[in-house]
Amino acid sequence: MSQATIQTPAPPQPLVALTEDEQLFRDSVRQFADETIRPKVHEMDEKGVFDHSILEQFFQLGLMGIEIPEQYGGAGGKFFDAILAVEEVSRVDASAGVIVDVQNTLVNNALMRWTTEEQKKRYLPKQCADTVGAYALSEAGSGSDAFAMQTRAQLKGSDYILNGRKLWITNGKEAGVFILFATIDPAAGYKGITAFIVERDFPGFSVGKKEDKLGIRASSTCELILEDCQVPKSNVLGEAGKGYKIAIETLNEGRIGIGAQMLGLARGAWEAAAKYSQERKQFGRAISDFQGVQFQLAQMATEIEAARMLVYNAARMKDAGMNFVKEAAMVKLFASQVAERVASLSLEIFGGYGFTKDYPAEKYFRDAKIGKIYEGTSNMQLQTIAKLVLGGK
Ligand SMILES: Cc1cc2nc3c(=O)[nH]c(=O)nc-3n(C[C@H](O)[C@H](O)[C@H](O)COP(=O)(O)OP(=O)(O)OC[C@H]3O[C@@H](n4cnc5c(N)ncnc54)[C@H](O)[C@@H]3O)c2cc1C
What we know:
This protein is of the alpha+beta class. The chain contains twelve helices and ten strands. It has helices at 20-37, 41-47, 52-60, 79-92, 94-114, 117-129, 243-279, 291-319, 325-349, 351-354, 361-368, 378-390; strands at residues 133-136, 152-156, 159-170, 177-183, 193-199, 205-210, 221-232, 236-237, 281-282, 285-286. The strands form three sheets. A four-stranded mixed sheet has the order 1-4-5-8. Helix 5 (94-114) packs antiparallel against helix 6, helix 7 (243-279) runs parallel beside helix 9 and helix 8 packs antiparallel against helix 9. The longest helix has 37 residues, at 243-279. The protein is globular. The N and C termini lie far apart (45 Å). The chain binds flavin-adenine dinucleotide (FAD). Flavin-adenine dinucleotide (FAD) binds next to strand 1, strand 3 and helix 12.
């Protein structure tokens, strides 16, 4: 009788476990965010302008091309690394976080996945070196119903001529390259949607009004104006008429990025409140001595941990090549709810001071609100989740 050998597999790692490399990367981003971004956060928020020197350092540190292969000048990292970076930067400033997020999870991802080799050589090195990217889907009349867009592209000779306006475009002020969606055939519905790589200095392209916003004020949100804008035919991203697929698939990844932004924000708000609760004295004791305050902080910490598990798990699924559509929608839905609740309670722990601009709580509270709106509102995430869980997929 042959003897069966029992092989004991290595026990699975906890969901939130990081490799040594990931820990080192996270710690270096955390240190940069604390030392370089934090001192500028208040002023950037007040002025509504992002500090250009921080942008330059993002490029120098490799944070603007995290997943881009080394042969194109990138860091050759994983999607998970990009998620860690967005989380750590957003812990200090959600505006800085969304710049890193849009660059990596939307623009670079679309460029890596859908470009020809020639387009890769032209655009990827710039994305790593000095060019901020933006992702232009929304219009005044088409937000949740994104494919009802009016921006039109007509082929004339070797160029597409684009006419229309895009609204709410993150990084609009700083960006040099735009992944921009237009329809080549309005009668074809979503099958007319085409993605273009538009450079800022293409004739007929201009950046319009910058929004004055409640939160993430240092992140620019701009209108884009296309007036007979000439885009070479060779700048179609993927295939003409297949832009809807690019939009849907990049936004699936982007949603995990927004989840990471909201997770980072919630952590930042929690840490500020926990520290304050140990300093602030009432009734002769630190307010953190009161069980009521301890329970609030404990509840928040628990919700943050749950959000972290959803974010990390979805990012690991993406890196493993698994289908993560449902998980990405859940991440964005849940992490934005947690961020809003945590930021709100954190503000209350600061008492009256939390309501002023002298403390960081009110900014976390204002910044949290966007998590439920962009890259698909909470209702749109629920719609996706409902379809997938009820459809049995
Ligand atoms: C700061 C900021 C940055 C942004 N950055 C970008 C960017 O970089 N690129 C880009 O392309 N866009 C960007 N956007 C746009 C953003 O994605 C849209 O605002 C968002 O998708 C919602 O669209 P909307 O504003 O037109 O709202 P609407 O679609 O008009 O929705 C209004 C309300 O109706 C609800 N609703 C709509 N349809 C349904 C439905 N079928 N069922 C249930 N409820 C529904 C929504 O949930 C929402 O509560 C940004 C927006 C902001 C505010």
